[in-house]
Fold these 4 entries.
Entry 1:
Amino acid sequence: MLGNTNATRVRILRSGICHVAISSVLFLLQPNLRSQSFKPESYQANSKTAGIQEAIDAAAKAGGGTVQIPAGTFILHALARHPAILLRSRVTLSGAGPEKSILRLEPNARVYPAVMANEHYANPDAAEADLDITLQGLTLDAAASDQVVRETRLARAIQVAGEQEIVLQSMEGVALDSLLRVDPGPNEEMVPVIRVVSGSYHALLLRPHPAGAKVVMLVPRLHGLALVGAHNVMLQNVTIQNVPMDGVYLTNTADGTPHHTYSQKINIQKCNFIACHRNGISVIDADDVTIANNNFRDITGDPGSPVDIEPNYPEQHGSRIAIRDNDVFRCYRGISLSLQSSGPASENFHGEVVTENRIQEIFYGWGIYVLLQQAGATVSGNSIAGTAAEGILVVGSSGVQVTNNVIVDPGRCHTPGNCARPASGVGIHLMDGERWSRLLTGNTVTGNTIKDDQENPTLLYGIDFSSTGKGNTIQRNVVSRFDSAHGMVVHVSGNAGSNAISGNSKQ
């Protein structure tokens, strides 16, 4: 990334005057580069992006620099099927702080695939990879509640919270992942369609709704920031909110056409992801990714994860991904390392680390999920509380280290009025991936603390081992206050003889 001593700094002022100051160092290095000025009409009077895109273009043309966005709310307009903002190599987009500099997408826009994307998102193989891009100190607001496709009403009441079938007066356009705003007003919920069963559409609702309640269908498949084959990108102190799909989407394609240039060296720190309606951060094809010290809140959908590592094809990448020190609250599911579509023997996935994260109030699923990881992964030092399903779920994986995690109240019900069920929570669940013919081998589960502090415990098993695999170690875990009639510290329904299961205790 070019520093301030050798790059152009472009500043957008609220008055609409754009100044370019070129340092003496840059002038000496590039004597043919002249000092440039930008007239108001060149970036504001006729601009669809409050002059931001024009300033980015000017900085890129000058060889790199910083576009400084002042405090204020800036409405972003865009052509249909095109991002509102294109990020260019060696350009930093810097605001006055996420609570001060707000970039908001116009109502009912038809942008695609994201509000922001790197310049060559459509074909990253066609040119040098977009690189050295920084976003800092701003909010990107996709204003999902404004992205209206059409309106209808509930044809049948939602009598009780939980996963329920959604029946509308008109089902036109409804599909898996459709985002619905149900019962606008004090009782409003934004719910994605998470399951299609025999032609019926299901969503997870947290409260009842009457028949005839208004339902608004929102624009589908709009990401906040799409990085397609981009390299060396930093997001710091950025808020991404109200996004119909992923807050950040890391991949090698935006439209399904495979490309060879995949994302690399992505650093996302001290950011906020709020009300994203598929995932906070989705990693489809990217290596060397650091996701640290971020806040994730109200992430819904399928999977509805704060961070979802889920490649689509064997040739895609997901190595050296560090997910650490993040706060997760009120999401459908927790952090996911899911290699079901990538080819579980692929050499492109290794070195994943999930450590020291704080995960609370998971409405629908597990706290941390590891599926078909064959090259090992580390899940350590995480604090997980109030998951609707398992605290940690490991399926068909090898060499995974699950150590020193604290799991509280797994199996907790989050749908009032629909909680009459026996205790079924599991702290750590280990199982074979029968669907993919993968056995658990060589995994280690040690030093974990699993407990239930509710008046009516939902914890059934501290650890549930249901595998015919070999070489797994389950030792020195401590479990407290599980269902007294049926629960146990370690429940084994698999091949105990070829695995080391010992020293686990009830507190």
Entry 2:
Amino acid sequence: MYRLSRTVFIIFIGFFLLLNSGCAPGYMQDRGNDALDVLELGLTVNKDSKPQLGFYFDFFSLFPLGYAKVEGTAFGLGNRQAGKLDYLNNSWGVVVWGSEEKGIGIFDPRNPHQARPDQADLEEWPQYNVGLPRLIIEDNPPPDLHFFECNRGIHLGWIGFYMNVRPLDIIDFILGWTTIDMLGDDESRWD
């Protein structure tokens, strides 16, 4: 009888720990989203035959450099989506002063990578100020998580590529397996 009660107790504790360890609904989806947040990468093409130009780099929203006026289609990864995605990059920067309006895929204002918490009612990609002096002087900063990104995009004529690396999201991905949501970007928190 002792062995049976001990076995039932161990099964109960194991079941309780399993439910609270992150194997609950949404846990694996959040881990997948954290993995997708680490890197955005792909090719860009025009939606029409008119050539477009983009040569824009942004280092942590503090040092923007270049110009981009590109609206097209992306093939790759971006904003937790993969495949054929809408692509927008209307940005400019002169190292210490700039403006960004960028987006890949479908815009979700609840995603802290895409919009600030005070922008929950937005329906399209917002435009932000970038560059250290401009961020100090004017009031329209990007979401906090943009300060931990290195964006790159080149588009010449009809084709190009984009890449965005988010080093802090690597740590968030690793910690997420322990149920710690360091960046507060797990979708299960948005509901």
Entry 3:
Amino acid sequence: MLIEYVHRLMIAVQSIKEVMLKPQWKHQIEKFVKHYVWHTSDVRRAANNKLWQRLESRLIEMKERRKRLLQNIYLREKNMDTNLPKINSSENADQDYSLEFQREYETKEAQKNVII
């Protein structure tokens, strides 16, 4: 839900001029963008980058984190299903599971987007 909220916020901020934002709104968005939990630095803060661009950076990172988490869970479950420890599983099996995950992930994302 947070990802969807940030996506909608980014679109809203993009559609209006930043000067129209209340200072308290802008301050809160800045706090979110600059928060210490982000792995990537706020490179878009430099120069004259727009607030919506900086939100977009955070949105991309959130989506990448969620995808990595889901992929790790998926691979762990597949390894449990085959009763093979991760150390003994072949690289080909991991690649097959990664491709399988990618297909399923894209299908589920498309379904979710239709619903949203």
Entry 4:
Amino acid sequence: MSPEIIFALRLKSNLASTCAHWGLLERKAGNLPLALSKLQQGIALDEELARDEPGNQQWQDYVAPNYYFISDILEHLNRPQDALPYYQKSFDVRRALAFRGLGPPKAQKEFAEAAKLLGDHSTGLAQIDAYRAAMQTWKRLIEDEDKVVSARLAAEQFDVILGFARVFRAEKDWPDAQTAYRLAQKVADMNHDKDPLDTSWRDQAKAADRASLEAKNAAKAALTDAKAR
């Protein structure tokens, strides 16, 4: 790559960073329309950089948090429909960062969080797909060989994963509900191992185990009904 091209890329990156920083300052000051405008300018430049150098994930790393900031601003401006595409963009770029060569735990954690946010602001199948992606990512992290990292990341995820299970159950998505309840049980067991004196985790694990069995039985019953038709 020629020095001229490198200089142009750095110049565009610096301008993108300046716009994003300006936007965040305006957001903090409560000037949401101006914050939105500046962040969108910064994102447009970062997206150009990502297209110019598709193999350089640094540009995706720079733009990823700003998708969240824009969606949050749009929510506060009472524009949820405009926010949804930015939740989707956050999901897409976080997924690319997390699973390009199986990214580090931190990148996978950030993808799981972006997936949950997308699901929280979606409905129907789109919500189920987003929650499923988040759940499978947490499952991958929790079952990782590096138990120190996975335990730390999983420590506060019980309520999140249990929430996924309840959504799957409400939609009669029994296989995903069973997986989520089983995963919640594993998180509760991990937290109980971390703090054996806190017996509430043991109780939570037992409750999740019972719910997992109920989902398993419901899945079998649904399959039997389907075959009988």
